Amino acid sequence: MTELTTMDAAALAVEIAAGRVSAVEVALAHLDRIAAVDDKVHAFLHIDHDGALAAARAVDERRATGEELGPLAGVPLAMKDVVVTRGLPSTSGSQILRGWIPPYDATVTRRVLDAGIVMLGKTNMDEFAMGSSTENSAYGPSHNPWDLDRIPGGSSGGSSAAVSAYEAPLGIGTDTGGSIRQPAAVTGLVGHKPTYGGVSRYGLIAFSSSLDQAGPLSRTVLDAALLHEVIGGHDPADSTSIDAPVPAVVAAARDGARADLSGLRIGVVQELSGDGYESGVLDRFSDAVRLLTELGATITEVSCPHFGYALPAYYLIAPSECSSNLARFDAVRYGLRVGDDGVRGLEEVMSLTREAGFGAEVKRRIILGTYALSSGYYDAYYGQAQKVRTLISRDFAAGFKTCDVLVSPTTPTVAFPLGARVDDPMAMYAADLCTLPASLAGTPAISVPCGLSEGLPVGLQVMAPALADDRCYRVAAAVEAAVAGRDGQPILAAAPSL
Amino acid sequence: MSAVLSAYDDVITRYAPVIGLETHVELGTVSKMFCGCSTSFGGEPNTQVCPVCLGLPGALPVANAGAIEATIRIGLALNCSIASWCRFARKNYFYPDMPKNFQISQYDEPLCTDGWVDVRLAGVVHRIEIERVHLEEDTGKSLHVGGATGRIHGATHSLVDFNRAGIPLVEIVTKPVAGTGAQAPEVARAYVTELRDILRTLGVSDVRMEQGSLRCDVNTSLSTVDSEVWGTRTETKNVNSLRSVERAVRSEMIRQAAVLDAGERVIQETRHFHENSGESTAGRSKEEATDYRYFPEPDLVPLAPAAEWIEQLRGTLPELPSTRRQRLQASWNLSDPEMDALANAGALDLIEATVAAGAPAEDARKWWLGDLSRRANEAGLELGELPVTPAQVAQLAGLVTAGRVNDKLARQALSGVLAGEGSPEEVVAARGLEVVSDTGALGTAVDEAIAAAPDIAAKVRGGKTAAAGALVGAVMTATRGQADARVVRELILARLTQN
Question: With an 8 Å Cβ cutoff, are A202 and B299 in contact?
Answer without folding.
Answer: no
